[in-house]
Write a structure and sequence with these properties.
By secondary structure, the chain is mainly α. The chain has one domain. The chain is 75% helix and 0% strand. α4 packs antiparallel against α13.
């Protein structure tokens, strides 16, 4: 029992978020060129919106679910998705029953749920496999603005700073506050104090983070970061390690074949969620 509580601790959640942000688990997509991974994600994020066929959407959902398994998505992110998906399924039946709907209503709602769930799975598989450096360099290689590339990389790198600052501020509140004399009915006093602490920690968190941000930006500008990101020679040196190989091409080809197979199955066994 104690071991299970340790697994669900705040420290475990923090470590899981860092593992997710920095792609430390490896997996199929983590070994591929980041530009092809972005292309793979865009393909599976756009295709679901071109069909109302539930058979096609179920096939695309299965493809993305397999990609999530092969990408070794962490239990925290995957657990949150499963809880949300189950809650959405329950909502379908409750909404259809409460508003007097029928099977067509459930199918129409299931269509939207499958589309959003497919895109969510593709997002998890792709971005869990890209660390900040790869994602930033891929955007820069695709001729995205240099500041956008920098913002993505910097945002990822600020994640552990934000978490550490939040932990420090919350610990300070806990040390200064008197312990609760009673937990209250179903522990409502604990929930109330936690909510108040989170709200009160917001402004100190933003202030401390802003101070660190200014120091970091000044240090980067002193080293010529902006100039190096915009100058052709700097971009060439920075992106020299990006190489596509047969595995990257095979990733897109296999995905295209699977998408075509899903549409073929939908044509052979059509189930429509929307009459339109």
């Amino acid at each position: 029992m104690r071991k299970d509580r340790d697994k669900l601790s705040v420290e475990w959640v923090k470590l899981e978020l860092l593992r997710t942000a920095y792609a430390t688990r490896g997996g199929l997509l983590a070994r591929r060129d980041p530009r092809f991974v972005i292309g793979w994600y865009l393909l599976l994020a756009v295709v679901p919106w071109f069909t109302h066929n539930l058979t096609v959407l179920a096939g695309l959902f299965a493809v993305c679910a397999a990609a999530v398994v092969l990408s070794r998505v962490g239990p925290l992110i995957l657990g949150l998705f499963v809880i949300g998906f189950a809650a959405e399924g329950l909502y379908l039946f409750v909404a259809a029953w409460f508003f007097g709907g029928d099977t067509s209503t459930v199918l129409a709602l299931a269509e939207l749920t499958l589309k959003l769930s497919t895109i969510s799975l593709a997002s998890m598989a792709a971005f869990v496999s890209l660390d900040p450096e790869k994602l930033s360099d891929a955007l820069l290689s695709l001729h995205a603005p240099a500041m956008l590339s920098f913002g993505v990389s910097y945002g990822y790198r600020m994640l552990p700073v934000l978490m550490e600052e939040f932990h420090t501020v919350v610990d300070g509140h806990r040390l200064r506050g008197a312990p609760l004399t009673s937990r209250g009915f179903l522990g409502w006093r604990v929930v109330d104090r936690t909510a108040r602490t989170v709200v009160e920690a917001f402004y100190p968190l933003m202030l401390n983070t802003a101070k660190r941000t200014r120091t970091t930006v000044e240090a980067l500008e002193t080293k010529g970061f902006t100039y190096a990101g915009e100058h052709p020679d700097g971009r060439r040196i920075r992106l020299a390690y990006l190489r596509c190989d047969g595995g990257d091409v095979a990733l897109l080809l296999v995905t295209l074949v699977l998408v075509v197979a899903c549409f073929w199955a939908g044509h052979a066994f059509p189930v429509y969620g929307n009459a339109g």
